[in-house]
Protein 1
Amino acid sequence: MTNPETAKHDAIVDEVRSAFGDALLDVDRSYDDLALVVEKAAVHSVLAHLRDARQCDLLLDIAGVDCMDLPESRTRFELEYILYSIPTDVRVRVRVPVPEDDMDVATATDLWQSANWGEREAYEMFGFNFVGHPCLKRLLTHHEFQGHPLRKDYPVMGGQWCTTTSDMTEDLEERQGGVPK
Amino acid sequence: MTEKKQVRIEDALPGAGEVKRPYTAADFDSDVDFARDDFDEGLDLSDLDTEPMLVNIGPTHPATHGTFRVYCHLEGERIMRAGVDVGYLHRGFEKIVETKNYTQVIPYTDRLNYCSGLTNNVAYCKAVERMLGIEVPERTQYIRVIIMEIQRIMDHMICVGANIVDIGALTNFWYFFNARERLNDVLEALTGARLTYSYVRVGGLAWDLPDGWRDRVKATIKEIPKAIRDVRGLVAKNRIFQDRTMGVGVISKEDAVSYGWTGPCLRGSGSDLDLRKVRPYYHYNEFDFDVPVGANGDVYDRAMVRVAEMEESLRIIEQALDRLPGGPINVDDKRVVLPPKQKVHTTMEALINHFKLIIEGICPPPGRVYDATETPNGELGFYIISDGRGGPYRIKVRPPCFYLMNTLKYLIEGAMVADIVAILGGLNIIAGELDR
């Protein structure tokens, strides 16, 4: 059985390749899914293109990956944006290799509101620095927590003793465009 | 494939068209943030000596149904600014599973959305099965549909029941929990557990249905419509309930999509996105069921979408029980399923097979897969990376209520303090899934 998505995936790959050229490093079509591997510098424009031209209106998740023990990866870290287009029913992933010595990535909060917490989680778990994020601070771990627990070199039993309570003033001041009416 | 059909909530209610709405979505597109700003008109408060009041709610509070903290800056009873702090139930799910094998992860998934553990089991196993390229037998697919839909009803009962309790109506909660208890008994007879089931396995199920279970489910689901009718009759046209929920926590479809909403909450805002329809798995395209959608995106619509979904789930369960085929429940694949104990004790091959599966675990080929399932709360996705070993290299969970909670700050700013619990309950925030 052929996957009905395959033709849509072909169109997206062709379009992104013609629009961004060498910034599209690779294409992963395993399991009939589509993952575009793009350069870090071009990630924001690729995401904006997918949102505006391919109607990818739902940013499902942002997954950070520590590729320390993965032999095939180019860099220490990777970010994976999982997008879905409700009108065209296509799921696209955008994979961004991120080197350990330069973890600045352009924020996607201006494209999707859901990127807010998605990026905060990727920041605290791996240490990605999302440039332009309105409130890049720890979300699931304690505000005194040191280090990035999902990195492979962080010990599994590496608990920390945190004592004070956050006064949450930053959360009160956090503002982002597009507040729902 | 069945026709994709939308049912508007207002049409599904008894006495369709009679429900009067104090506000509609159009009222909220104006420059005024909330229609309730009218309250302050005509009052000159400028020379009144006021100071901002900061109120902390949580981390443990009876109305939060979980551990998280809301911090509000109030003026009178109006919330001017709010902050939301989560993570009090963070247990490092994604870290601990990197040290386990694929089968050992299943009990951890029970503890994500603990109101519907079986759905998480199925969602996780479905993702791993996709990595392995195996399809579970027909019988297992139908059993998985049945248990997932039972769990959907149970989850919605908790969500809607607790939501109504929070705004002051306790009776409905017991109507739902009586019915839910019957369903709980059914699942207990099947799995032996009442909360953390761990019944699903990669490649099949832990064991087949017990004798008479099918008839028992058939008898039990006949009791559910009465509970739904009772609660709907008490709240759907109840003036107090409508005043507390209509026009409260309104979000437009476009905003909801931008905030990453899925599931019944998004459908309450008017989208008909349902993975069971758009990306059918386990023969969902062969079942006759409708997708209820709301129109106004407020707490009322979200609750009523859930109530209507329960009835659709009952329809699916009935059809699946009728069509339940016989046959094996586990795939015939030595890489995945343990050999029968009798063979382990009598043949060398089965003993080696058993040993390798226990010691090394299931080893999918290296690769990455993202697989999503329509759970009661929305799209539960598992992004799994395998490096060919017997355990996952990385699992990223995409919990539906993580992105619902992201929105809470914006939903409660401008609302009243008492609206927090109504909005929170309508979103069905499950801290186990939120914080992982």
Note: Chain B touches chain A through 63 residues (CB under 8 Å).
Protein 2
Amino acid sequence: MTTSRIRTSHQDGEVAPNTWHDFDWVHKNEAELLEHYGECVLLIYNQQVIGKGDTIEEAITAAEHNVPSDLIEVTPITYFLQHRHTFFRVYPDKTKE
Amino acid sequence: MTRIQLRIYTDPPQVEVFLNLKQPNGEEYRVAAVVDTGAQITLLPARLMNFVEYRIVEQGSVTVEQAGIARQSFSATEAMVRLFLEDTTGARTSEIETHVWFANTGAILLGFQDVLDQAALFVDMRANIGWIERD
């Protein structure tokens, strides 16, 4: 849990205005994000990556530095960025070369 | 029964649903989960363990052997968590207490035990619609 301006949790039934748009955005841009950031935890707010880390805590710390100081609270979504299916990374069969 | 609309993607093909995981302070942590009819138990990243309420079950640490051609195995912590399924229309299930595996992964997979095995699941990839019905 965190008491910082970066609010990654919510009250029962609460949905921040950015939430659904940000989930859609990260899905649409997942390939580009993977290429740019690699496998990691991302915090996304208003269709921007505001924090990145190996853990949620690191991503929150990064977001604290990245979010403008005049914002009292931000409500990012958390996304665990990773390659989807190892099975689907297909390589040429060298025995047939 | 509550009907939860699923998020249907075609490129790459994937069916997702939102989970709200209960935290010790009563708040919730929202993540998107892949509906995985090949998953015996729901799988969560171990990195969430500092952010959600859980209770480790008796056997605690387990080794999971993946089925199929991969023949891989990984370590996991088996625990109980409380969660809700949710969709963008505001529909929510009642609280579900379920077994999960916490593992060193970024994958979030909604599996059978306590969740899909108590639900009706419908997916039409041609029409891009799908839902889960559950109490």
Note: The interface with chain B takes residues 1, 8-13, 15, 19-20, 23, 27, 39, 41, 55-57, 77-82, 84, 86-88 of chain A (CB under 8 Å).
